[in-house]
Design goal:
The chain has about 90 residues and is α+β, with helices and mostly antiparallel strands. Helix content is about 35%, strand content about 30%.
């Protein structure tokens, strides 16, 4: 399944707000999957110095990822398809 990164700018976000956003993303992904469009939130990285995140999702296309984030009410700057490369693969 394709992998996507969602880039966000979240100036002033608190740790509690990040946790809440994560719970909403998880819940909305489950709802959309139940509706027939599989989407999975894999993980997120918080960029401390930039007050932003890179959040990784699996889905058939970027539209499904965007819908999950809209439903979760989490702002995003972009959704871009990525390829994963790990040390074990090279």
């Amino acid at each position: 399944m394709p992998l996507f990164v969602v880039e966000r700018e979240l100036p002033g976000i608190t740790s509690d707000a990040l946790q809440s956003a994560g719970l909403r993303a998880k819940t909305c992904c489950a709802e959309i999957t139940e509706e027939g469009d599989p989407v999975r939130w894999i993980r997120s990285f918080f960029l401390v110095e930039k007050s932003g995140t890179h959040c990784y999702f699996e889905a058939q296309n970027s539209n499904v990822v965007e819908e999950a984030n809209r439903r979760a009410n989490i702002p995003f700057k972009s959704v871009v398809e990525v390829l994963e490369l790990t040390p074990e693969e090279v």
